[in-house]
TrEMBL record:
HAMAP family: Salvage_MtnA
Top-rank taxon: Archaea
Protein name: Putative methylthioribose-1-phosphate isomerase
Phylogenetic placement of the source organism: Archaea, Methanobacteriati, Methanobacteriota, Stenosarchaea group, Methanomicrobia
Organism encoding this protein: Methanochimaera problematica
Gene that produces this protein: mtnA
Molecular functions (GO terms): S-methyl-5-thioribose-1-phosphate isomerase activity
EC number(s) from the headed UniProt entry: 5.3.1.23
Family from the record: Belongs to the EIF-2B alpha/beta/delta subunits family. MtnA subfamily.
BP term (GO), one: L-methionine salvage from methylthioadenosine
Protein's job: Catalyzes the interconversion of methylthioribose-1-phosphate (MTR-1-P) into methylthioribulose-1-phosphate (MTRu-1-P).
UniProt site positions, description: Transition state stabilizer: 160
Chemical reaction(s) catalysed: 5-(methylsulfanyl)-alpha-D-ribose 1-phosphate = 5-(methylsulfanyl)-D-ribulose 1-phosphate
Key word Isomerase present: yes
Length: 344
């Protein structure tokens, strides 16, 4: 498998389009997709070809740059209307991950005062690049803060993929692990497979094994037993949205947090300020529900009787009282988290 880039999503200046790693094909195939239409980007986000909160922020930002290129042959008023329609459409593709709408709004706000199409296009692309570069710096900073919290030798359990593939590069939860390893710590990882789309067994295991960081995959339901056996020293996960009362992350995260508390294991969250939603409330947040087919089939193999419906939530909220600390790019937040709640 030839890997020619360590970035998950980036702008191709020769072809004036977005390129991204197609994550549904991993770990079997590593393909980079060229995307020059907003419609294609929306499909990629819905299908999880591009996924993970910070990567969605970058995708949304570049999506507006793409939208600015798509619309010409119109006056500025019509142009802004078309771009903000695209923005609304892109935001609707995944409602829970706040970074997507954050990245889109940031670029949209920046182009508002542009007087010409050319100015709007250049501004949009510059701002989207800034979002991407800042994401890289933030991940390294989160990693450095979080690494301090890991013992010199430890086993960390993680859920889903909060790695380089979920960001521009490096990762949040996996960024902490990478930074700890870089600092000389001996870290092994237990990667929960993360049913139904297996971001843990497909993506986290792939990323870490490429970096020669010891990783083993378990079924999600094995986590509590390993905790009971004393084989997990800490849990670290990423987040899709953090409100003052809950951390929203991949379905199953809540279960790990409850089990970690029962077994006295620290439960850490690693996320940038762009994932915080200071005005949100757990009960008001829309939890994305996905197709029955994701549960009912594994490839072509049918796993459920045709007549049985599925409940397929993509995320769950973990109450703040179960969170030991949150690693951000500006430092480590500890309970009570409502004090100085971050605003992006
Ligand atoms: C740094 S990524 C944090 C989260 O986005 C990640 O843990 C997660 O839940 C991703 O879900 P996904 O549905 O694969 O986009």
């Amino acid at each position: 498998m030839k890997i020619n880039n360590d970035k998950t999503i980036f702008w191709n200046y020769d072809k004036n389009c977005i390129e991204f790693v197609e994550q549904t094909l991993l770990p079997v195939q590593y393909n980079i997709i060229e995307c020059d239409r907003v419609e294609r980007l929306a499909k990629a986000i819905k299908r999880l070809e591009v996924r993970g909160a910070p990567a969605l922020g970058v995708a949304g930002a570049f999506g507006i740059a793409l939208s600015c290129l798509e619309h010409d042959d119109c006056n500025m008023e019509a142009f802004f209307k078309l771009v903000s329609d695209d923005a609304k459409y892109l935001k609707s593709t995944r409602p829970t991950a706040v970074n997507l709408s954050w990245g889109i709004t940031r670029v949209l706000d920046k182009i508002k005062s542009s007087g010409t199409l050319k100015e709007a296009r250049e501004t949009a692309l510059m701002e989207a690049e800034a979002v991407a570069r800042e994401d890289e710096a933030m991940c390294h900073s989160i990693g450095n803060y979080g690494a301090e919290y890991l013992p010199d030798k430890c086993t960390v359990l993680t859920h889903c993929n909060a790695g380089a593939l979920a960001c521009y590069t490096w990762g949040t939860a996996l960024g902490v692990i990478r930074s700890a390893v870089k600092a000389g710590k001996d870290v092994s990882v237990i990667s929960c497979e993360t049913r139904p789309l297996n971001q843990g067994s497909r993506l986290t295991a792939w990323e870490l094994s490429r970096d020669n960081i010891p990783v083993k995959t378990i079924t999600d339901s094995t986590a509590a037993f390993l905790m009971k056996k004393g084989e997990i020293d800490a849990v670290i996960v990423g987040a899709d949205r953090i409100t003052p009362d809950a951390v929203f992350n991949k379905i199953g995260t809540y279960m790990h947090a409850v089990c970690a508390r029962y077994h006295n294991i620290p439960f850490y969250v690693a996320a940038p300020y762009s994932t915080f939603d200071a005005t949100g409330k757990e009960s008001d947040i829309i939890i994305e529900e996905r197709d029955r087919e994701e549960l009912a089939f594994c490839g072509n193999k049918q796993l459920m009787p045709k007549s049985v419906p599925a409940i397929n939530y993509a995320f769950d909220p973990t109450p703040m009282e179960l969170v030991t600390a949150i690693f951000t790019e500006k430092g480590v937040l500890k309970p009570p988290f409502t004090k100085d709640f971050p605003i992006a």
